[in-house]
Amino acid sequence: xxxxDIMAPGNAAAFDITHIxxxxxxxxxxxxxxxxxxxxRRVLLGTFVPASGQGTQAANERLWEAxxxxxxxxxxxxxxxxxxxGAEVDVWHSSxxxxxxNQDPGQAxxxxxxxxxxxxxxxxxxxxxxxxxxPVPIDGPVGELMVATSRHNFRPAHLHFMLFKPGFKTLISQxxxxxxxxxxxxxxxxxxxxxxxxxxxxxxxxxxxxxxAPWYSxxxxxxxxxxxxxRPRAPIGAKxxxxxxxxxxxxxxxxxx
Length: 257
Ligand SMILES: [Fe+2]
Description:
The protein is of the alpha+beta class. It has a domain at 50-136 and 145-222: Aromatic compound dioxygenase (Protocatechuate 3,4-Dioxygenase, subunit A), CATH 2.60.130.10. It is built from 5 helices and 10 strands; from the N terminus they run H-H-H-H-E-E-E-E-E-H-E-E-E-E-E. It has a 4-stranded mixed sheet with strand order 4-1-10-9, with no helix packed on it. A 4-stranded antiparallel sheet has the order 3-2-7-8, with no helix packed on it. The protein has a two-stranded antiparallel ribbon with strand order 5-6. The radius of gyration is 18 Å and the shape is globular. Bound molecules: fe (ii) ion (FE2). Residues 46, 158, 160 line the site of fe (ii) ion.
């Protein structure tokens, strides 16, 4: 295995699991020309929604298409002190089993993905299920590198957000669940203290919102910076075929395999 294999164009996961993505996140405009590598402002974009066919959803709409195992959650979020209306907010996350819709033939198209608009106070809300952590794919040199360095390949549970509004830098972020065993050893080095969400558990059902007990709430704040709004190219692949093997895990925090 050569470093050139790891850094080959298109091998985006290599940037993530070698910590390069996050190291460059704040300096990408200055450093990318010097490094001559295809790094863009992506910041752990991960498995992303398709670029087309994504309609806007109503406030408080739910992201799951069928009854799933796992706890439900209500997410409220706002642009802190920025009453910016009409920002497009893409949200996507894994299922309670730790699989994205495109990895899982058992999930409906676009399950656990949505696009919302901020209201006149810069707020948006939706309902979903609480995500689970998952193993990242370890095909090719990425897997070789992780095996060679005795690292596991699990990511802690998180929600993906992308906020797009002309006149502002596109904000791509992940908010992590505070009770995940992989917070301190994320395979992609994405966790910082500020990105750990304040999920609150509720043990009484919220009938009006269709949230059986227990359910979780998260009240999150984001801030947009003035600049150029750019949508990254969506790297999502085709949906997995029925019977496709699950991503292999390299050791779990609880010792199981
Ligand atoms: Fe993810």
